[in-house]
Amino acid sequence: MNPHLERLQPYPFQKLQLLLQGANPNPAFKAIDLSIGEPKHATPSFILEALAQALPSLARYPTTAGQPALRLALADWIAQRYGLPEIDPETQVLPVNGSREALFSFAQAVVDSSRPGATVVCPNPFYQIYEGATLLAGATPQFLNLLPEKGFALDFAQLPDTVWRRTQLVYACSPANPTGSVMGLEEWRRLFELSDRHGFVIASDECYSEIYFDEAVRPLGALEAAHRLGRRDFRGLVVFSSLSKRSNAPGLRSGFVAGDAQILARYLRYRTYHGCAMSPAVQAASIAAWRDETHVEENRRLYRDKFDAVLPRLESLGARRPEAGFYLWLPTPFDDTVFARQLYHDYNVTVLPGSYLAREAHGLNPGRNFVRIALVAPLDACVEAAERIRRFATEDRSGAAAAG
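Above: the chain sequence. Below: its structure as tokens.
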């Protein structure tokens, strides 16, 4: 067996399941699960219809590069969304089976583990795929802590030049999971400068880019930042996006990668051997989804309504509206794991301890004493959960440590 498998830590939801064992929830309350970032809004009917109508295409093998019509739909969407003059559908974009699959496999294609000290840099807290992909590629993860006093921005000075010189890949996540922060132009400028100096590739995870709160202020994307900074060839940069959150279609497993044509050409070669071509029926549904914005605007409205209703109930606890995404990154008045277990026991609300989404780095775990709340349930359930969380957090917690 691959010895690197032993380096993998349990997934956060495995840890949560163990944490909650034996904490029998209060039967007086209906269960509300806000721990997993799985969209619960209905998949638009026109996407389902496009999928069903294309089912006869399952009789054909798909190509790894995808249908020209899909690549064109992706290129058109990227150019329109980010105000770019054009994206070459032949060389600068590829369909993938969801951003998770691509974020993992990309490290396997990029990292050269034969080079001494191969390093991959990740934000912290982070999406655990980054770490798993790094370890199974034979590299060592290094972390940049996202801290509230820094506005959850990347602080590149946390790592010395000796680490940056060994770095081959940097994962960025904007809008960030779980903090909801969005990288600004100066953040991108600094990261691009480091990439040019040390020769690493940037993988920008942007799967939450279409969930934001002001239709006039869209989150800055990496390709947009590169273009504005004169990097018209997107050198050293590949972005990852998905229909899971944008179109409420996580089961479709459909997304794209776009950016540096030279990197994508080599990644396509890897994918050809990897055996990950997208189903023709899924491609047809994806074309329909990327060609429509009306359902995405409605999706944003639903999330906006939830935040508008939930935030007034939790602001006294330190809740703040994220810049984008559907998570609340809520500070806890005591240990986050104790908080999550006792909240589940007392009020039957499930949230994810923030420490499970981070690693000890630079002397601290930046997820400790936070919980991640995914506002994916229906509006009334989110409001009810917020009321229970507020009630729980403001109770006398003198016995919480013993109960946990």
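Residues 400-404 have pLDDT under 50 and may be disordered.
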